[in-house]
Design brief:
Length: 84
């Protein structure tokens, strides 16, 4: 199996996990952390393997990771302020 195929299958599994958590109606801080962590992982895999950033300089990979963490962190913070 090619590495890209394995990454694609992993992305499908992570998406199915996120979908399952949403359909199960789970809530709470740990669920937000899980879903946001999966979003960062999926974004990192897409940027690294399908956008070709894993072959670039470390600076570009860190910039992409920082952007992902920033966006997901902002969304998580907004969700956490709404959780009672």
């Amino acid at each position: 199996m090619r590495p890209d195929t394995g990454i694609w299958l992993l992305l499908l599994a992570l998406t199915a996990t996120t979908f399952g958590v949403g359909e199960a109606g789970l809530g709470g801080v740990w669920v937000i952390g899980l879903v946001m962590g999966l979003a960062v992982l999926k974004g990192y895999l897409v940027s690294g393997f399908f956008m070709g950033l894993r072959r670039t300089r470390l600076l570009w990979r860190l910039l992409m990771l920082g952007w992902l963490v920033g966006v997901v962190g902002t969304v998580a913070a907004l969700c956490l302020t709404a959780v009672k």
